[in-house]
Amino acid sequence: xxxxxxxxxxxxxxxxxxxxxxxxxxxxxxxxxxxxxxxxxxxxxxxxxxxxxxxxxxxxxxxxxxxxxxxxxxxxxxxxxxxxxxxxxxxxxxxxxxxxxxxxxxxxxxxxxxxxxxxxxxxxxxxxxxxxxxxxxxxxxxxxxxxxxxxxxxxxxxxxxxxxxxxxxxxxxxxxxxxxxxxxxxxxxxxxxxxxxxxxxxxxxxxxxxxxxxxxxxxxxxxxxxxxxxxxxxxxxxxxxxxxxxxxxxxxxxxxxxxxxxxxxxxxxxxxxxxxxxxxxxxxxxxxxxxxxx
Length: 294
Description:
mainly alpha; two-stranded antiparallel ribbon; 11 helices; 75% helix; transmembrane helix; amino-acid transport; cell membrane; transmembrane transporter activity
């Protein structure tokens, strides 16, 4: 019983990380129709921004305080990078989807190469608060404390994004712009500026995922964003392209399937199980590729 509790909690924590990484991807595609393969570069930028910030702060500061500042800086960096990418590269190509894919793929490769050129290919250790590496006794199992942090952050992000889309004027403008951009522009609303905000939000969420994933892995590396992006894409496709609620459910399912398969079958089978889950969803519900917002 204790093993099952441990697997469920660790699976939920892993699923929470996948959701944080996938939420920005889902938001950008669902509201703007942009399949952003550069999302992994945003994740990597956030991871390195948090790592560099923690290293630059005074060593006398508590690690948890430096981590919080690092995460905040990472989110800001992700938002800025997302905004710049949308304005400079994506905005001129809104009606050219093939070119969008090529540009974002190229940006992703360039991001990895830039990180390798500046910091090298080897992973760099990330400092973590002592309590993140600790455990809590619950239902006879020793549960890692960091998984609770990931679940809490993912929950706050999910509720915040839904509230933004459905309870604010900005969310109304975003959804209206998706449905009928011409009509919204005729009312004097700058849809391009609104979509820039969406891309910045997606970049911020990706950077947050990068900062938290570096704590999970205990290190930062140039390839980190790309590896997490693979699972983010799987989660978004399973949950329905553009559906935040579907993305959240799919992230939990992927995290649990991966953990349970690795434990009850063999190490490495979890990745195969996730791919099989994706194939099964596409066979039974191919409309998941179309998706819907929120």
